[in-house]
Design brief:
With 181 residues, this protein is an alpha/beta fold. Helices cover 52% and strands 11% of the residues. It has a single domain, classed as P-loop containing nucleotide triphosphate hydrolases (Rossmann fold, 3-Layer(aba) Sandwich), CATH 3.40.50.300.
Amino acid sequence: MNKETGIPVNKKNIVLIGFMGVGKTTVGQLIATKLGRDFIDIDQYIEEKYNMPIPQMFKEFGEQHFRQIEKETVIDICKNQHNKIVSLGGGAFQQAEIRQTCLTSSLVLLLDLSWNSWKERMDILVDNRPVLHNRTLDEIHELFQQRQLAYSKHHLKIRTDNQTPEEVADFIVKKLQHNNI
Ligand SMILES: Nc1ncnc2c1ncn2[C@@H]1O[C@H](COP(=O)(O)OP(=O)(O)O)[C@@H](O)[C@H]1O
Ligand SMILES: O=C(O)C1=C[C@@H](OP(=O)(O)O)[C@@H](O)[C@H](O)C1
Ligand SMILES: [Mg+2]
């Protein structure tokens, strides 16, 4: 039993964090399937609830509006749901309230990817990530580095360079099953 939350450790939500494109959505879904737990991807949840793709929400209402909805959604899920696998969007941990709520209620796993590996994946990411639009590679690198401070607050870091999503998910599942987290 966790002293602060009163939630048994094996019923805690598992929250995946990390930069855009590191594999949070893909790996989260795989872990959920392997553990037989429900999966919640915060971005997909918001898109369904507001019936609008995230890039359109950025375009029509602006990033601040999305960040407000993102904060309310993550906090609501962390406080009211248990035993879920939850993948956040890459910008969520920039918000102190999200960080605080996740770190006290859930097991926070950082998916870590080096900048060199990330760059190779960039082309397939750009279309659906408005944060990458109108930014040079140098500016994206700066954002990548700036965000590492928020990501440094986690319970476990998993290095994902040269690992398939399946391998990353298997590694996490083993850790969980052996109570190594
Ligand atoms: N470990 C991996 N190796 C190679 N490609 C990956 C890996 N994890 C994810 N991808 C690919 O990168 C893209 C972004 O993955 P996604 O799960 O949406 O990341 P995130 O949710 O962190 O933004 C997808 O096309 C996915 O197939
Ligand atoms: O890093 C960010 O600011 C964002 C990351 C995206 O999620 P993924 O990290 O799943 O791509 C999504 O939440 C939105 O486009 C903003
Ligand atoms: Mg995602």
